Amino acid sequence: MDTISPVTQLHQEASAPRLQITSAKTLAESSNLTSIPSHYAFTTPTSGDQAVHADHDDSIPVIDFSLLSSSNPDQRSKAVSDLAKACQDWGIFMLINHGVPQSQMKATVDALMGFFDLTEEEKNKFLGKHVLDPIIYGTSFKASIDKVLLWRDFLKMMVHPKFHCPPKPEGLSEALAEYTGELRKLARELLKGISESLGLGPGYIDKAMNMDSSLQILAANLYPPCPQPELAMGLPSHSDYGLLTILMQNDIGGLQVNHGGKWVKVDPIPNAFVVNTADQLEIMSNGKYKSVLHRAVLNNKTTRISIPFSIGPSPNTVVVPAEQLVDGKHNQATYISMNYKDYLEFKQSRVLNKGLCPNQVKI
Ligand code: OGA
Ligand code: NI
């Protein structure tokens, strides 16, 4: 294996072969890179496949947040039923008129780009070992054990109930504190609409999931240009762990969603968020809203950044299907209950795209 400086020496078992892992950004910036190192290549092609654009008559739903917060009851109930349809049919939607100022969105993207521009030494202070570490920087998914590495660097921070953020670059912490504060309000409103759309009343999820101490994680995924995007992968097919994920991205496409067994390209809409259903929503809705599978593919021209904000229950909440969605005969509870913190640890201990977590397994 070629080693390109600077390299990250990851922790290895004493007897294991020493593996040197470079960030995707450093690799992409190394001169004369015309092909990817073999440990980034999947055996079957990744993005150069059959992914399609959504049909005109079955396109990714668009939800207008201003209607959801409207004081006009007809507008609100139409928005709630649109939300129900979006969650049930797609598990993903574009959110427009969300009220988060563009200036804050831009400041967040710029500040996180600035983090990835720090020296490897600076970033490596946050090389994480455990899923519940408050700040984790890394490459791939779990670079020390991934068989094939992903062309992706990432930073993950717990931003609620307690706010964590690296001290550098200057301004990052302020930008993220403001941005995540806005998203917290937005996500809670959305969850009220979703709770109502399940016939549970607007306050059910907030109360049952103990949202005052909700666990919220902000991540940034950096996908540098890749010389062979059809062989490497940004993030393979997976579902997210929380209730909802609200994703911001620069205007470079790459996200794909599984819909009706096909991979559909999610073309960015300027200033819109992409919202997707996640595992805890599937569990609490007793499978009415499925946690949608999605993945991120690469390109060979431009760096893509995506910034997902995951909102979940409080760490100690034991998530169970809502009683009203369980009825003895037709709709028995099909999920094993587990607290959210344990769920996160269990999910992280598995290979990214392999198998379901135990509480998604039918009883
Ligand atoms: C994720 C994710 C998609 C993207 O971080 O969980 O699905 O487009 N990201 O980067
Ligand atoms: Ni995801």
From TrEMBL:
Keywords from the named record: Iron, Metal-binding, Oxidoreductase
GO MF term set: metal ion binding; oxidoreductase activity
Residue intervals of the Fe2OG dioxygenase domain: 213-313
SUPFAM superfamilies named in the record: Clavaminate synthase-like
UniProt superkingdom: Eukaryota
PANTHER family, per the entry: OXOGLUTARATE/IRON-DEPENDENT DIOXYGENASE
Membership in a protein family: Belongs to the iron/ascorbate-dependent oxidoreductase family.
Protein's name according to its UniProt entry: Fe2OG dioxygenase domain-containing protein
